[in-house]
Amino acid sequence: MKSQRMSVIIKLILSSIFILQTILFIYLLFPVDLNWMVPTYNQYLWISNIIGLLTVAGIGFVFYRLAKVKTSTSKEERNLWGVLIFFLPIVFGLIYVWYKDEKFN
Q1: Residue 9 class from Cβ within 10 Å (0-12 exposed, 13-18 middle, 19+ buried)?
Q2: How many domains does the chain have?
Q3: What is the largest CA-CA distance in the chain?
Q4: Is the whole-model pTM more than 0.85?
């Protein structure tokens, strides 16, 4: 059975998850006053937990797609992309979603 391509909607959803994670990461590196958006620290914790859960779900979906690959792509290359996405999903998650998934499938 041939693997199906990822639809544009799924790509946009995964991309928005990884972009939200990037924004949260940049905020942690360079904190600014966000009282206009998140008035309390408790609300910030809720938002960061939700973004974290969405990121884990996005990484899980990408891993599922990597495990489902049944083409001539070498196992070493798929394992490399799995490790890269696990450790740096902010960068390599977007690269995989938009470029590598069609190559692998």
Answers
A1: exposed
A2: 1
A3: 52
A4: no
